[in-house]
Amino acid sequence: MEGNEMSMAFENRVFNRRSGLGGGRMGCTLVTGFLGSGKTTLLKHLLDNRGDLRLAVLVNEFADSDVDSLLLDAVRLNQAFNLSTVTLTHGCACCDVSGPFRESLQRIVDSKHNFDCLIVETSGLARPDKFVAELKEVGIHLDLTVAVVDAESLDKIINIDIVKNQLQHVDIVLLNKCDLATLGQISNAEDILEGLTGGAKVVRSQFCRVPLDLVIDCTKLQALNAKKENETVPGVLSHESLPKMVFPWYTSDNSSVQISTSGYTGNETSLGSETWSNDSLDSGFPHGASFSSATFETEVPLSLVSFQSIVLKSMRCTRSLLRAKGIIWFAEDRESRFVLQWSGLKRVEAISGHPWESSPKSCVVLIGTDNSELQAIILQLSASADYPLEVSSEPGNLREHARCFAGMVSGDGRFKEPLLHKEPLVIFGLKGSPLRGVKESRLNGALMRVVNGKGKIFLTATSSGEDYNLQILLDEDSSVTEAWDEIRSATSIVVSKLCKNFCPCRSDLAAHVH
Ligand SMILES: Nc1nc2c(ncn2[C@@H]2O[C@H](COP(=O)(O)OP(=O)(O)OP(=O)(O)O)[C@@H](O)[C@H]2O)c(=O)[nH]1
């Protein structure tokens, strides 16, 4: 579609909505975007703010494990609507989306739930045009296609064919992760998008927090004004995963570790023909990259000490890892169910929110362009499950480190009083600032991202309601003073960024800045 037609499509959509031409039919939005750009984050935002809207959501996954449905709690939500989750068993959803996908669409069309809108999230490696054709085939009217783009990393991945393809047929681009990107990166990304999309509407966002009516064409949006009743009117998620193309098993001595891999090469691939540089993500990806995925599963807890000192280090050194996500059960914090995310420019986080609802386990999916690098990481993950517990959980000097670090935090008025009940983990965090409307979660989330982004130490986080705490585990090789210096310097960056628009006469601001 040319730029003009694209703008007209957008205007028609707005006009139709205003004039009520949408009638009672189910709307449909297709969400596309490269791996880790924020598509699932957009879905969560829509589900959290749907009010009385009845949303049906279809999620398509590249890897052979349904990690997205774990992350989105799909099964529980599906059960609420008496729908089962869906697994693709034939064909690769990146190039062939018929079969189970069409059946899922048909089920949604035929369902008695009168959905207001269907949201289809394609996998990060899918070509949206295939989905468009399939929707048309089933008679679902596609209102608009939304692409989510990582503002920080767009210029590094723009040579990948699939990325270009995803951007060519969109009505709206959410230029996401603007909190991580510099102004230069944002305006550079906007230039790239203007050239590639032929004039689609580009909207800057952080965590895809955009008004719902920007991405959902639905005549029932007034329902949003009604009281939120998320529990009684759930959205629906139906998950699809790709077929297992290779499925070797690996079993370590004391755990059942399952490793599986799948591979996909885009239609237009021609590895090595263009500007492929092997240096790192910073050097950009090739125009015809081929992708593969590997899945790691175990019911034995992983050592956090080993995870941060070995696995993460190795992930940071890889040249081809594009995405990692999953659930992790750490031996040092067995009650918590951590969600691991690795995306964009080697951004990593592990946040625990929901408690375990079934037996604890770890399940991590890796996606990249070099299968041997993925396998090396999988082996390290399995070694973390075998890591001797006495090394990771015992010992005096870990506790000493923890207490020493807690003492330092305690002496800094910007922080809440640290907690040691999970020793050798130290639980700590910045105080929120109610006067300035800066929530603890925002401050501490930003602090975690700055610290983890530097890659010297690794912070995990726990969030529960309004509480948002950070956790640090200093192993024997760590220097407590160096770790504290890292935290303090990151704190200054975060506080000055988040607080710069506020009046310095406020006492709680003064406490943070000084
Ligand atoms: N800092 C920051 N992180 C973000 C933002 N949006 C999403 N993220 C994080 O980016 C990571 C990936 O986000 P997802 O929503 O899972 O990305 P996705 O596009 O669904 O990923 P795939 O389905 O694997 O392609 C998660 O850790 C998100 O919390 C943002 O605006 N800012």
Q: How would you characterize the overall build of this protein?
A:
- By secondary structure, this protein is an alpha/beta fold.
- It folds into three domains: 3-240, 3-Layer(aba) Sandwich (Rossmann fold); 258-388, Hypothetical Protein Yjia, Chain: A,domain 2 (2-Layer Sandwich); 395-513, Aspartate Aminotransferase, domain 1 (Alpha-Beta Complex).
- The protein is built from 17 helices and 16 strands.
- It is globular, with a radius of gyration of 23 Å.
- The N and C termini lie far apart (54 Å).
- Mean pLDDT is 77; it is low at 15-23, 82-95, 223-282 and 506-510.
- This is CobW C-terminal domain-containing protein.
- Belongs to the SIMIBI class G3E GTPase family. ZNG1 subfamily.
- One of its GO terms (molecular function) is nucleotide binding.
- It comes from Canna indica.
Précis, in short:
The chain is α/β, with parallel strands linked by helices and about 525 residues long. It has 17 helices and 16 strands. About 45% of the residues are buried.
Notable features of this structure?
514 residues; alpha/beta; Rossmann fold; Aspartate Aminotransferase, domain 1; 3 domains; 7-stranded parallel beta sheet; binds guanosine-5'-triphosphate
Q: What is the topology?
A:
Elements: H1 3-18, E1 27-32, H2 39-48, E2 55-60, H3 67-72, H4 74-80, H5 100-110, E3 117-121, H6 128-138, E4 144-150, H7 154-157, H8 161-168, E5 172-176, H9 183-197, E6 201-204, H10 212-215, E7 236-240, E8 258-265, E9 290-298, H11 304-317, E10 321-328, E11 336-343, E12 347-355, E13 362-368, H12 371-385, H13 389-393, H14 396-410, E14 425-428, H15 440-454, E15 459-464, E16 467-473, H16 480-499, H17 507-513
Parallel strand pairs: 1-3, 1-4, 2-3, 2-7, 4-5, 5-6, 12-15
Antiparallel strand pairs: 8-9, 9-13, 10-11, 10-13, 11-12, 14-16, 15-16
Bound molecules: guanosine-5'-triphosphate.
